[in-house]
Amino acid sequence: QKEVEQDPGPLSVPEGAIVSLNCTYSNSAFQYFMWYRQYSRKGPELLMYTYSSGNKEDGRFTAQVDKSSKYISLFIRDSQPSDSATYLCAMSGFQKLVFGTGTRLLVSP
Amino acid sequence: EPEVTQTPSHQVTQMGQEVILRCVPISNHLYFYWYRQILGQKVEFLVSFYNNEISEKSEIFDDQFSVERPDGSNFTLKIRSTKLEDSAMYFCASSGYAGQVTDTQYFGPGTRLTVL
Description:
The complex is a heterodimer. Chain A is mainly beta. Chain A has strands at residues 4-5, 11-14, 19-25, 32-38, 45-50, 54-58, 61-66, 71-76, 85-92, 98-99, 103-108. In chain A, strands 2, 4, 5, 9, 10 and 11 form a six-stranded mixed sheet that branches. In chain A, β7 (61-66) and β8 form a beta hairpin. The mean pLDDT of chain A is 93. Chain B contains no helices and eleven strands. Chain A binds chain B through residues 32, 34, 36, 41-46, 49, 88, 90, 92, 94-102, and chain B through 4, 6, 31, 33, 35, 41-45, 48, 50, 55-56, 58, 89, 91, 93, 102-110, 112.
């Protein structure tokens, strides 16, 4: 079983849709959970960072962590064409980040 | 806004040659990392560095790889004898201010290494 599993997509949605991106993980030692956005041939850009189970909201983005189910989610409200990118989940116990494969999101005008 | 910078953006080298990839982490960060991403694959951890020594490394980080913080601002990754399979994007990241334990890692734009 992979440490972190993420559907690679692509996920295609119309502008204005609510997007749900998900990851599952197997390592109970993970305590920190992050979502990064990556444009083609660029570095990962940090979007959201959470430590505990629950929800965290930042503008149009909501990150959700369920440690009991080992499941994390990122919701994007009112999606825009500029949100088209690959979204990477990442998690760690300390220091070393373990990434999912990334989900490619396409938001069409 | 402070950011991690990396040079060069693209490096082409012949198999067997040595390459040095350079990074300037965010000022006052204490933890430094190298990751790589082979085209079409996920981002993989290589090494973490704290207090002038390696704190953790992956199986990928074998004897061909080394890291160094030669001065107060630069952080380098050296590959002694490059192989074709070393072709990838290499990302530097940094995190952690004094007195704060955090895994919020900020990534640079990457160096694309092409080994011919």
